[in-house]
Amino acid sequence: MTTYVQLKAFHAIAIERSFHRAAERLRLTQPAISIQIRNLERESASALFRRIGNTISLTEAGQALFENTSRMFEAEGMALDLLRGEEKEFSQTIHLGADGPHAALDLITSAKTVHPEIDFRVTMANARTTWENLLSLKIDAAVMVSAHLDERAITQEVSRQRLVALIPANHDLGVPKSITLEKLVNYPLIFREFGSSTQKIVDDALAKNQFRVTPALIMGSREAVVEAVARGLGIGFAYSREIAGDRRYKGVPISGIQHSNIDMLVALKAQAKNPLVVKLFEVARNLHD
Questions:
Q1: Do residues 139 and 268 share a domain?
Q2: What whole-number distance in Å separates Cα of residue 26 and Cα of residue 18?
Q3: 125 and 9 housed in the same domain
Q4: What are 143-194's pLDDT values in tens digits?
Q5: Where are the beta strands (DSSP E) in 12-114?
């Protein structure tokens, strides 16, 4: 029979991704917490964790259980606070994930205007990592470009923006009003890392036009791409709202990439009744309208 102690041990490991840190969190010995997980997995007939060397990740069954234990222990904490007549300090804080700063900051600015009592903690990452953080409940909601539809999530459009080529100010191309993808592939190009929403748009466009490109550089962040372009190391790609105010490069529309990208506010359906998430979605709807 599954026990509260087993679920508590599982939840701690799912958060810490470490048996040792989970044991410290619960003030137990590591063997004791290992026994609880062994019994839980045996009783459920499911593997809840993948263990590769020192790395621990959740299986599909573990992820599903983690989503439920997160709600369970959140409700437990709220109940205890109610009984004590206390309000946790972080109860007015939204942990927001984002795969880019601009749309997220626009949303936060609008939210703070309407709800100054709400505080924000922001985690920046690429689109793939941000989505994984959302699924693992490391964040409450996320602002993502062209977020894929998923039956587990609710979404709200925040804004739209276009992908442009970042061309150094002193480039041989000058500053054309627009440029074709066919012309761009003849020059050194700077790509983002795998998992970037920006790079996915570029990759899809290249594949559609059957262009094979070896990038001059692959950079791990939007800021790194911008700096590489500014130093004349190649032509990069970014969204139109991300490039204002820097004379070292110009953003030029790409005629081969007409897609307008949508910044979406995303949250799991499990968070649909979270009062702070509800308020954030209301702000996003007003911002879009």
A1: yes
A2: 12
A3: no
A4: 998 766 788 899 999 888 788 999 999 998 888 889 999 999 999 999 998 8
A5: 49-52, 55-58, 93-98
